[in-house]
Amino acid sequence: MGVTHLSTKTSRGTPSPKTKKTFYITTPIYYPSDKLHIGHAYTTVAADAIARYKRFKGFDVRFLTGTDEHGQKIERRAKEAGKTPQQFVDEIVAGIKDLWSLLRISYDDFIRTTERRHIEVVQDVFEKILKKGDIYKSEYEGWYCVPCETFWLERQLEDGKCPNPDCRRPVELVREESYFFKLSKYQDKLIRYIEENPDFIKPASRRNEMLNFCKSGLEDLCVSRTTFNWGIPVPGDPKHVVYVWFDALTNYISALGYGRDGEEFRKYWPADLHLVGKEIMRFHTIIWPIILMALDLPLPKQVFGHGWLVLEGGKMSKSKGNVIDPVVLVDKYGVDAVRYFLLREVPFGSDGYYSEEALKGRINSDLANDLGNLLHRSLGLVERYWDGRVPTPQAGDTSMADYAREVVKKYEEAMDGFLLSDALTTVFSLVTRCNKYLDEEAPWAKMPRGEEAAASTVLYNVLESVRIVAGLLVPFLVETPEAIWTQLGIDESPRGKRWEEVVAWGGLKPSTRTRKAGPLFPRIEIRTQDAHPSTEGGAGEAGSELIDIERFKELDLRVAKVTAAEAVSGSKKLLKLQLDVGDGIGQRQVVAGIAKHYKPEDLVGKYVVLVANLKPAVLKGIRSEGMILAASHGEDCLRLLTVDGEIPPGSGIS
RNA sequence: GGCGGCGUAGCUCAGCUGGUCAGAGCAUGCGGUUCAUACCCGCAGUGUCACUGGUUCGAAUCCAGUCGCCGCUACCA
User: Fold this and answer.
1) To 5 degrees, how large is the angle CA A273–CA A275–CA A277?
2) CB burial string A80-103: b at 16+ within 10 A, e below
3) A135-169 b/e with 16+ CB inside 10 Å = b?
4) Which of A18, A255, A359, A482 has an alpha carbon within 20 to 30 A of A611's alpha carbon?
5) How many Å does it take to go from CA A205 to C1' B6?
6) Using CA atoms, how far apart are residues A208 and A284, in angstroms rounded to an integer?
7) Which residues pair with A60 in a beta bridge?
């Protein structure tokens, strides 16, 4: 493609086309023992946005992700599934790649630690360091649990026994030969490096932690295992396999062909950014740099430890059943809504809260109300008053142009520090400014007064701002920017165009025929679920809306037997009930607002109707796990629903 | 236990080296508008800036202590 015009203004950090600077960014390689969840998606989407931004800015980007496929856990999971480890991981990796394609992750390379290209480099690296003397053979002493086939550290034991809750059997002290890596030798060098390079570890709080850890003294690291086979054999000593982190971390250079053809390695190493979750900072800022030091290789320029998406109910875990599957979210809300939420909600290095309500809130308030509606209303005006053509601005009002320029500047600052959430906040401040500007200038009022020139300027300024907004969203969203440009009547896509051209004011040509379409982001109706678990509230608006059977089925109604009841102190209305809901559900505690109508002792033994899948609530400090149903008529009349005869507690109601 | 951090409007949080620092967004209420996806715009809040002392002319901002919460404290990825 012929680049004909010279860049008029070279933004900071933007290389000219001739001397294209490189940018190498990595995600962690994920462990394919299970499907990935929203947390993995978060890391990868963030890396993707950074990679897209850097490409936008003209960098020669290399974006690497992959999978870390060895280790005991995989070996076990495969066995349980009756598969070979390789078969097992192949299937999961296929699913991971599908997820990345669903989320439109623009990785340049996907490395798997079971690939030959990786195995060879790991063995090469191991051998080099061994020869150098920084890996040495010694004895590993540990407590071994024979039934569990697992080594434990002294401090992991519980009462000197196996800490596995299903085991708790005595362990035996075992010595075995192992390879050790001399972390201790490089301790001071690493400390100095971290101290002299304040940007090496981000954010600063993590940097301090890591520095602290180093200063407390590094022990040599055991880098081989003999207790399982699913790993890379130690060269020349195949009863050992290479320790997981030594294997995994090496992916960052094996993917570049370190020690082989070498060209890509020379081009892209050292990495500009390893983006990782805060939980694996230590491996990336201590073990990995020391491996590189032992190889006499330069260290990555930055390791950024991002925070987690925290769920309301605590950390995501399979046992809690609260694992959020990104595929489900994308199917439900669309890829751009999910990407937007992930990148907007979690600021800098801190944690962010995930809930579906928060996700819907973001979609509605930012994407639908502010951005989508802005485009919709301004194109509506263009259709009504300008016959669907971009109006011609008059000189004079530069307020929006000035504001947009300011936004672009702040956006660049945020992005250059990888502050994705801040960058998005800035972009949306321009959207908000546009909405306000439209209201202030009210072009729909100017037109009837014959102030067409002024109104044209206003509309142009808004449309042009929206054009730039779409451009700034290119790294974050994968469909919306082009959708906006299309509606603005621009035939090109903002993606792949040069940054300077996209963000320069005045790109939108007057007279362009616009193509207004449906809402960019439809509002999501948030069903207001009354979490009040008492029986108050009565009938509500009867007959206001018809529902289908599926909607009704969402309720889990059960017969429950009242086993105990007592008044709630400090409340005239509330009773605390213990319910027997059968074998399936068991005991439930419910707080019900029926004290004015029932005495506790009259309730015990009654069969009532429980909404079993209502979100738990806390009333007067007492947890209520559902609600029981009652009919009421005015203030004074309330009767509990019950069943017409004997039926086992827990029986379903339909 | 050791080191570090946090505790500011209902919610999520900004507030760097002390003097418009008492703020933003969301939620709430009221008003405006009706070009628009019940949208947008404006106004209004309430806050003992965890608690107790201290330094200072003056502290959310510095110091000490108390209470509460969180992170790190290595061989599980």
Assistant:
1) 155
2) eeeeebeebbeebbeebeebbeeb
3) beeeebebbbbeeeebbbeeeeeeeeebbeeeeee
4) A359
5) 12
6) 14
7) A22
Closest nucleotide over all strands to A367 (CA to C1')? B37
Assembly ipTM: 0.91
Q: Which nucleotide is nearest to A31 (CA to C1')?
A: B77
Distance between the alpha carbon (CA) of A202 and the C1' atom of B63, Å: 29
Question: Integer distance in angstroms from CA A352 to C1' B71?
Answer: 15
Q: CA A432 – C1' B8 distance (Å)? A: 26
Residue whose CA is minimally distant from B5 C1': A205
**Bigger pLDDT: A7 or A168?**
A168
The pairing of strands A273-277 and A22-30 is parallel
Q: Compute CA A14 distance to the chain's CA centroid, rounded to the nearest angstrom.
A: 28
Longest distance between any two alpha carbons in chain A, whole Å? 93
How far is residue A58's CA from residue A54's CA, in Å, rounded to a whole number? 6
Nearest residue to nucleotide B32, by CA–C1' distance, is A439
What's this model's pTM, rounded to 2 decimal places? 0.78
Only one residue has tokens 């690296």, namely: A125
State the Cα torsion A156-A159-A162-A164 to the nearest 10°.
-80
A279 CA vs B46 C1’ separation (Å): 40
Nucleotides of B under 7 A from a protein CB: 2-5, 12-14, 26-27, 32, 34-42, 71-77
Alpha-carbon distance of A366 to A339, in angstroms, equals 13
Q: How confident is the model at residue A651 (pLDDT cuts 50, 70, 90)?
A: confident
pLDDT band at A498; cut points 50, 70, 90 = very high
Closest protein residue to B72 using CA and C1' atoms?
A209
Q: How many of the other CB atoms lie within 10 Å of CB of A490?
A: 20
Strand, helix or coil for residue A590: strand
Report the distance from CA of residue A344 to the C1' of nucleotide B18 in Å, as an integer: 33
| DSSP-derived 3-state class of residue A275 | strand
Higher local confidence (pLDDT), A551 or A340: A340
Q: Residue A334 CA to nucleotide B43 C1', Å?
A: 36
